[in-house]
Amino acid sequence: MKAGEQLPSSALLYHGRRKTPVSIFSSFLLPPTRSPPHSSKPQVIRGARACTVCRAAKMKCVGAENGQTQCQRCKRANVECVFEKHRRGRKPGSKLSEASKMLRRLEKDLNSAKLKTQPADPGMPTSYPASESHNIPQDVIYGTLPQSDSAYSSASHFPPPDLPPLNLPARPSAPPSTAPPSTAYPTSATSSHTMSVVDDDDDDPDKSDTHLFPAKLIKQTQRNSFFRIILNTEETPVSTSSPPNRGSSYTPPQSKPPPAKPTIPDPISSGLITEADASLLFDALYLRLNPFINIFDPQLHTHTYVRNRCPLLFSTLIMAAAKFFKPEVFKQCQKLANDLAFRAFQESWKSVEVVQAFACLTYWREPEDNRTWTYIGYACRMAVELGLNRYTKSSQTETTLQKLERRNRERTYLILFVHDRSLSTQTGRHWMLPENDELIENSGVWHRHAVDDKIRPEDVIIAAFVELRCIAAVTTDVFSASKGSGANDINYEVVLRNCNAQLNKWAENWQAEMGEANGESFHFAFLKFFRLYVRVFLNYFGIASGTSQHHSVQAHSVCYCSAKESLQIVIVDFTKLSMLRYGQETITVMTAYAAIILLKVIC
Questions:
Q1: What kind and span of H or E run contains 13?
Q2: What share of the chain is helix, strand, coil (3-state, %, to 5)?
Q3: Which of 223, 498, 516, 546 is the most exposed place for a label (fewest CB within 10 A)?
Q4: Per-residue pLDDT reduced to its tens digit, 252-308
Q5: C-alpha dist (Å) from residue 159 to 103, 155, 580, 601
Q6: What pTM was computed for the model?
């Protein structure tokens, strides 16, 4: 057969059970081979490594390296030696994925940019063929982007079609950075994809639940022009600051406890405050801030004890107190606490105080800070790793300090459990800590095992909130399971009636426990506020999850009355006690949610 004639039908090769012309076989591309150094002809860049005949036979194509002559196999068979570009097949009608479309745009822009830059810079490295873009290093494809957290922000995670000009010249070695380690700490502006209570949920796969969960409902309401004017929201530009360059002198961090105190700065050693200031700030912390979080015991957590145990926790508490009582040093303390948090993560500090510090970094966060979900998740995992979820009975040989520290570990885990379930309720995301731990199962009487047999109101609140979150979880699971299965055999009125009865029983039980602990008016109002919030959430969740036939006047009435009462507690009780401004971020979310539900029920 002469060159250029088509193969007869008898020459079709079999592939599997189908007869397929040899010209449609394809394989993965390999890097091009170099031309012989003594060849005077320029190297031919082809879209395929082997001819169609050799590709069909799955044999090496020998003899046509210069692209001008037939290969040995085609010459023996006296057939045309054709090099065809690979056509990676797709099923007819199938669509390219977003990643494939993005890669094709990148290849197109890359090739056009190379053609523009080659005449201007003859010393550039050899260009990559268009058909071999899968071998291009990722840092060349995406340009010389800094390897910082900003690379994962919404602006660069999936580049838009109008890509910026690519920096294609060879990357010079970066000079050693002289910036301090603190500059590598990712601020909330750069971590735009980290999750928090009210962070952006544009990439949430389940957008049908936007009207159910508080954080999503508030986020959706903020998009309304009326609320946007009231809330005065602003767009935060994404920072592109890069971390310091790690030269040859960089030593990888190792998992170890914090080194000696002199090597770790704190607000006192940094000259921001004095010992006397620290003592006063801790007094203010216990008087105004701790009643909202209930995590610290003044018998144990003196400023001296905390400073000696963990500079990170000490700096975090000083930062929180300085925000309200010493604002002139707040920014410096905030930077120091953030730097130490980054260092604690980098060097794997692990202790109950580190767990508490990461939790406290989320309580009084700045509005643009969206690391709540990340920090609480990290604290939960560290708590489990440290065994804080173990329930240990007191022994006669324990000293007072040992009892206080044991209670401190248990208290920390219980609060993390409450915070974890609270975030799950607010955002609709799954919780991390299970409720079948022995410590959680014994939380109903945990507050009674005090060190000096005197029940603390703060411990009563913690034990009460654990049970409250479990009640909320059971009811939410019923509604979620009904929605997921599409079943309509659930009587929503019966479920809500049982739920409200459980909440009323909870209120009676824990109000009595708080009275036995000699709780103050703030503690009673605090318990009632959280119960009303859960009541509003579950009743509205039930209304929104069911169909129109399940909407009952009773559920609407419960939502209206409970939302109104919760707002009255915020406006009257917390304000009268001068406590409203000191509430953590959760109080703000719950208040906003109650206001939105009240408007929805009325309108």
A1: strand 13-15
A2: 55, 0, 45
A3: 223
A4: 444 455 554 447 999 999 999 999 999 999 999 999 999 999 999 999 999 999 999
A5: 10, 7, 43, 42
A6: 0.60
